[in-house]
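Schema walk-through. Below, the input block comes first and the output block second. Nothing else is stored per chain. Lengths vary across the set, and this one has 260 residues.
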Amino acid sequence: DLLTPLALAGASLLGLGWREVALAAGAIGLVLAASQASLRELDRAMPTDDDDEPAQDDAEGPERSGLGALREAIAVRPLLGWSMAGTLTGLLDEVLMAFAALHLATIAPGPDTVASRQLALVAIIAGGLVGLAWLERSVEGRDPRRVLLLACLISTASLGGVVLAPGLGVAAVALFVLGASSAVLHPLVKARAYEALPGRPQLVNAVAAALVPIDALAPLLVGLLALHLGSALALGSLALAPIGIALAALWLRGSSAPSA
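--- output ---
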């Protein structure tokens, strides 16, 4: 994530076009595929459902029935709420990068600013690394809900700063703050989802997977906004993600996991 914008900026400085960059990416992919194909671990057979221990199946009984267990898990309000909040965090990852790049092109258009725009995008990733480092070292002993709400507030404000930025410098600073604050949202939200259904991580992930269509549809809707109403409004619409996560944190404040 960090090297990709830097590589694109370097390619721009060298006078390379998208064709050369795409060919280089394809060559790297072929090299990686060839190196992975030589690994002996890939010769092992993939596990199947028949490989599960019968004793474990008998012990869990109806809970292992796929659709039934998924329906029961979705009925757990805290789990569904935090899973939907987890889906919103996806808007502040690749989707944010894409529409931030589009908006930066309107702030500083022209081929001469490509390298500068790529470097500005690096600020998101650099900020994300700082945010995750802070979370790992400082979250212990703090109220996760308050940390989550603060991160949502900073993310919303910094996103507004990017939209209203008059130039690349201000946008880069706002993107750094946005990257730092938004990076902590997913691990905090995911932790609350696991907490909503303790001891059942597979079902937690299954509920998240059931919401994947929202993940796929959201970028298309944001793209339509950008197409018809401009990149600023499209990028600003991503503020619905931290606002929605904050509402989930407030709405699910008193919710607790069901007893086993």
